[in-house]
Amino acid sequence: MYKVTLSMPVYNVEKYVERALLSALNQTFESIEYLIVDDKGTDNSMDIIRRIIATHPRGKNVRIIDHGINQGTGATKNSAIREAKGEYLYFMDSDDEITQDCIEILYNKMQENPVDFVVGSIIMHFDDYSKENEQNEGIIKKIFSENILKGKNKIAEFQYDRKNVKNSIHIQMWNKLYNLNFLINYQIDCIPHHLNEDNMFTTKLIFTAISCSFTSQVTYYYYKNRNSVTYICSLGFTKRIADQYIEIYSFHKENLLNYKNTILYNNYYYWILHYIFGLLPLYYKGYFDENQKGMYYKEITRNLPRKITEISKLPIRGIIYLIYLSLPYKITKFIYKFWRYLKRQNIRIFHN
User: Fold this and answer.
1) What stretches pass through the bilayer (predicted)?
2) Domain residue spans of the chain
3) Taking a C-beta distance cutoff of 8 angstroms, is the pair 103, 29 a contact?
4) Which of 89, 93, 113, 109 is nearest to 101 (CA)?
5) What is the pTM of this model?
6) Fold classification of 4-225 (topology level)
7) What is the per-residue burial (b if ≥16 Cβ within 10 Å, else e) of 237-262?
8) Number of neighbours of residue 181 by Cβ within 10 angstroms
9) What's the half-sphere exposure (Cβ side, CA atoms, 13 Å) at 281?
10) What span, in angstroms and rounded, lies between the C-alpha atoms of 221 and 141?
């Protein structure tokens, strides 16, 4: 039995997949099973993978799961959870890269203090970044403090603490080592049809897990890929993505009700308002007509708690978000466009 299963979904990444796969195969840690989930892209990604594993010493440890037809990123992660034979499971994207000692670091951290999952530190590359030049302006380092969280709701309280934003757990599924039995026993998985599969998975993880640990050691290099779902979404939502985010908002609004009269409630509600407010521009820029945008807006803002007792402890900014989200769609879009105009003119209204 393998100690760790490393899973990598593959879909139209021929430009990046060799770098990603070699970083996975060249790990210092020995007991790794590799799951390559072929989500039936149209380029030469799988040919590149087969060429590499045919000659690599660890090729015998690679298993290819053929999806038959394209099913989406959520389904690829569910396939990995279902098929993994390791004690622990690690996800990486096929356009990124992991450090040579990534799995060894995370596994050793898990053995020191067994937890539901371990989180590694990250370097995110957004421009012409290379690992050899980490002084480039186009990078963001997310370095966690060495830390262990244990107890019911402790991870959620940590995640949604307004004073702890810089240390919050990244929503992406990658660069975490999961106890596979924990994921299976508590049915922590993805919505199969979702392209933004990370969001719901990690949210369920945060509210279900009762223990996790962090390492300050960098184990993952994220590369911004202009063909990725994340980048395409940042330009404006398609109807498919817009519908999926409605599901996400609905989950959070319903989940919030479970935490009334707890210390988690106010911070979690503020996070929901901030999250909705931050993503509204992607609906404004969406690839659908104004009537549909208005309907989405109504659905997004429906059932937000508005009673005095429910909002009295929100910070001022949270109250502003709620007031904004109580306005008619056309007024909010006008305010947004006016704010964009002021920003282009270099006129600052709010200071962080």
Assistant:
1) 268-288
2) 4-225, 235-344
3) yes
4) 109
5) 0.91
6) Spore Coat Polysaccharide Biosynthesis Protein SpsA; Chain A (3.90.550)
7) bbeebbebbeebbeebbeebeebeee
8) 12
9) 10
10) 10
